[in-house]
Fold:
Amino acid sequence: MKKERVVIGLSGGVDSSVAAYLLKKAGYEVIGLFMKNWHDESVTLSNECPWLEDSNDAMLVAEKLGIPFQTVDLSKEYKTRIVDYMFDEYAKGRTPNPDVLCNREIKFDVFLKIALSLDADYVATGHYCRKAEYTTQQGATTYRLLAGADPNKDQSYFLCQLTQEQLSKVLFPIGDLKKEKVREIAKAQKLVTAGKKDSQGLCFIGKVSLPDFLQQQLQPKKGSIIEIPSDFRIYQDLKTKERTLQEQSTALHYLPEDGIAVGEHAGAHYFTIGQRKGLRVGGMESPLFVIATDVETNTLYVGQGKNHPGLYRETLKVPTDEVHWIREDLRLNNGEHLAVKARIRYRQPLQNAELYQTKEGLYVLFETPQSAITPGQFVAWYQETELLGSGVIS
Structure:
């Protein structure tokens, strides 16, 4: 009987290395592919040359496991789909999530198509998440994306934009394992990646200086940093005013006269909501946090302390064309609502929330106010351990 063929993305890290080992052990015909997506070393932090080292480690793992290996250059697609999109979003004063985009646009689209062209039955990755499926009474198969068994490493959030078709072709070999076990297996198999540190930084690029990266296209431009007092009048108004979901989900808009100038910045588009580092303003009783950016006037608004009311909102909105359901069978119609647990960033503990679908879009109303809800980021919603869908925050 012919073995099922699996193409695995070997990243040069321990997770994908062990995933490849487990696939081969399970009897699959395994092919390793390393994706090269970045050429520019100019913005990479000192002593870091990620793709060369990672490619070499991936090749050594493939040799050790006795599986075919090759490198594919996807830098053109990566620039068009990820880098250009990132520059465009930052220029608009939004904060994109390149890791979610990488998985949607590169690993589970471009890479998946390459794998299928090699007559693969599946692609596999080293993500800490799981897949399940069930058959409906009509005989159709529905695929479920589940959180990884290791709560400290669950990476389902990064896959929140996957589709049923993509899930049907994906395997997650280490999804049922904890990180410690993965390293134990790598060590036992004498894989060169056994003790390698987890990668940090932008997906497929490595650890880069984000301001340097953005300055490739977004020029520095001096502007004012305005501190908004924590007792700003609008907070008192909002406590007593009955507000619609639309009003609740709209971020507060400040004017320079609402606060006092405390410094200068090099460009509002370099900053994001909730950011603390890089402001370079001292002499305050509590640290300053970015509570709003205005790229039109190039103004940065900040507040003292992580409990500043300007950082918190209970509701966010996802425009209708940005709403994505992995479980299409659970998609809400206008006027419907659904109790879920949601997160607005990776590793954030899941929060109790309610989804409300309207003509204007999908609103996510949290049980407790959330800090630093950021336009351009993804909100993902779950029931139990299953990720149902996601969307881009407006």
About this structure: The mean pLDDT is 91. The chain has nine helices and 18 strands.
